[in-house]
Every structure is written in structure tokens, then in C-alpha cells.
Amino acid sequence: MKARASNFVIGATTLIVIAAAFVGFLGLRKIHAIQQRGPLRVVFEGSAAGVVKGGSVNFDGVQVGEVMSVKLDGPRKIVALTMIDNSAPIRRDTVVGLEAQGLTGVMAISLTGGAPAAPPVPLDEDGIPTLSADLSEAQSIRDTLHNVDHVLVDNRDAIKDTMRNFETYTATLADKGDEIDSVMRKADTAFASFDSAMTKIDNVIPELSRGKDGELYQKLRSIHELAESFKKRSATFMEDGRRTLLDVSDGANAMGRKFGPVKQP
Q: Which residue windows are transmembrane per the record (predicted)?
């Protein structure tokens, strides 16, 4: 019995020592982490939707801390207490904002900029560094999106009419595709005939150049150069025309997919 009691005491003592060492190790790590971080209070004037306890605090996109608490301070003021790495170069002119973290709706507090020579972050009455968030840009973006949404809703019928016209136009182009190809083929044939005529002129011009009629030679040469220029520009114009028709068709199809099917009246 005494041997069993002795073994039990030894085992229990060993477990207690191991647990104490583990707790002490975690405590040292926590103390070390606390020593490497300092508090930063961020004050939001207005909405701070998406800022939650445990959220990230990023400096130029790199996480440098986390949100420890979020609370109301009056009807229009929200205060977030964060812990920030002491190595983060935060200054008085550092801009505070919000940035989205994926599609979950959680927002990270973003810290941007700050001149190295700028003074440090001002301290609040309790000695905690405090910065005020500048949400004017984010609010401007939200207002713009809100206005765009209202414009789209208010002009839904006009957009549908435009889409209907696009669909009609592209359908007409599709129906007349064979005719357009026929016109293009005729133009190519005409240019081929014109090219043949120019080749014959090229064969005649050397003979004229050896003759005495220099004025006729110069006129034919000018006509030849003008025709070559016209040929190149016309070919470019037709190619651009083909691409434009394709772009219009693709654009109409894309808009149709975005706004949904258009009901015919």
C-alpha cells in the first residue's frame, strides 16, 4: 500500500510540474507578445459596420494587429480598441479606414501612409494613442453606388428598350450576313481586277519612261500611287468594319446576359 501511495504521489507531482511548466511557457509567450504590442484606439464618426472583436488591423495591406473590443460612445461615435505591433510605423498623419475581408461582411481596420518624420500618434486622456478614422472616401463610394443603383432602377424601361434595339440590330446583321459577305467578295474581286490593271500599267510605264512623253509618264505614276494608297485604306476600312460589327454583336449579347432576357412587347 505504501508503495502504491508513493507511486501515485510521484505521478501526480510529475503531472503537476509538467502542467505548471506548460502554463508558465504559455504565460511567458503571452507576456512577450504583449510587450511587442501596444494599444491603439480608433474612433469612427458614424457607421463602422463589419468591425468586430478579433478582426484584423492592416497597415498597407499587412496585418499588424487585431481588434480587442468595439463599443458605442454616443449615438454617432464608435470606438475600437486595438493592439498593434510596436514595429508598425504609425504616425499622426496615418490615414485610418476600412477594407473588406472577402465576402463575409467582416471589415478590417486599414492603416495607410504616414511620413517617417511626422510626430507620433497623439495620446488620449488615459494615455492611449488615438486616431480618428477618415471614412469620407468609403462613404463617397457607397453614395456613388447607391446613386448608380437608383439610376439603373429608374431607367430600367429605357435600358430594356435599348437592349431590344441592340438585339434587333444584331439580329438584322445576322440575317444579312450572307449579303455582307457577298459585298465583301465583290469588293475583293474588284480590287483583284484593279490590281491586274495596275500590273499592266506597271509594264507600260517603263516603256513610257524610255519615251519622250515624260508628262504622261508622271501622271500615270501618280495615278498608280494614288490607287495603291486607296486600296490599302479600303482594305483597312473593310477589316475595321468587320471588327466593329462583331464588337457590336458581342456587346449586345453581353448586355443581354447582364440585364437578363428582354421581353418583347
A: 6-28
Whether residue 81 is contained in a domain is answered as yes
Q: Is 126 exposed, middle or buried (0-12, 13-18, 19+ CB in 10 A)?
A: exposed
Within-domain flag for 2:
no
C-alpha–C-alpha distance, residues 187 and 237, integer Å: 12
Q: If we measure between CA atoms, which residue out of 163, 98, 106, 107 comes closest to residue 135?
A: 98
State if pTM tops 0.70.
Answer: no
| 91 and 175 share one domain | no
How large is the average pLDDT for residues 87-91? 89
202 Cβ contact partners less than 8 Å away, ≥ 6 residues apart: 224
3-state secondary structure of 77: strand
- Our CA angle for 237, 243, 244, nearest 5°, is 85
Residue 231, exposed/middle/buried by CB under 10 A (0-12, 13-18, 19+)?
middle
Cell matching residue 161: 428598350
In a domain, 27, yes or no: no
- Burial label, 12 (beta-carbon count in 10 A; 0-12, 13-18, 19+): exposed
* Residue 59: pLDDT band with limits 50, 70, 90: very high
- CA gap 204, 219 in Å, rounded: 13
Q: What is the CA radius of gyration of the chain?
A: 39
- Give the helix/strand (H/E) hosting 139: helix 136-154
Pick left, alpha or beta for residue 102 (phi over 0 → left; psi -120 to 50 → alpha; otherwise beta).
left
CA 83-84-89 angle, to 5 degrees, is 160
